[in-house]
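User: Hello, can you help with two protein structures?

Assistant: Certainly.
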Amino acid sequence: MITINESGMSFGPFDDSCVFWAEKSQLYQKVGKSKVKTVEFVLAEDNKLQFLEAKSSSPKPTPDNTTKFDDFINEIFLKFLHSINLYYSGILGRHETSNDIPDGIKEIDNQSISIKFVLVIKGHEIDWLPPIQEALVQKMVPISAIWNSDVAVINDVMAARYRLINRERED
């Protein structure tokens, strides 16, 4: 079992065979983490492939803060874009010597699996999430169209409900 502590949240525990800890992977190190951005981890279970990014906060989308907010959305977009490319480069064996994607994930049926990009923001009020969700969905339109994928922006309470985090183990 694996637990991933990130941004003050404890994700998991998950079966090791269904988690690709992208941020700590050999594949990410080989490709060049200075050139590539990645999400914390990829979770493959229940016929779903989820790319999970965790944040402890986000800028508010206000008229006097648009640059900071747009930079935040762009950063998340790049993490999602680079992560799906990194992940599928591993699945396709493009970097065989450093490919540490678990065998359990390599064997999933990629034709039928649903793909979701999930941003979890610790401590965010539910009312604060829709503008972030809307901006990220808009930014992700090309990726969502290509991969027939969804985007979700949730807080830690929702993540606990979806059994992504263990609220008793938060750091």
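That covers the first. Now for the second protein you mentioned:
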Amino acid sequence: TVPVAFDEAVLGTTVSVPLLDGGTVSVKIPPGTPSGRTLRVRGKGLVTKKSTGDLHVTVQVAVPTHVEGAARKAVEDLRTALAEEDPRAGLAEAAAR
């Protein structure tokens, strides 16, 4: 699990992820990646006698605990700009299935 900032999840970024052998690998986080999404990095997982597995990286969007001043205004402006989007659209229908 790798934490990313909200802006990194929205806009996309590349993060350095530690490997089990002590090294690191760069992982591209695509724009619009939601928290909980798992990305696969082929050939960077556990090494066995027969092969090398894949590394699975789960994105966790980190939410700031204190937002003040210009940052708070920016988040409020974002809320207004995205007022038409409903992150819970279809939730009742999915629960009814």
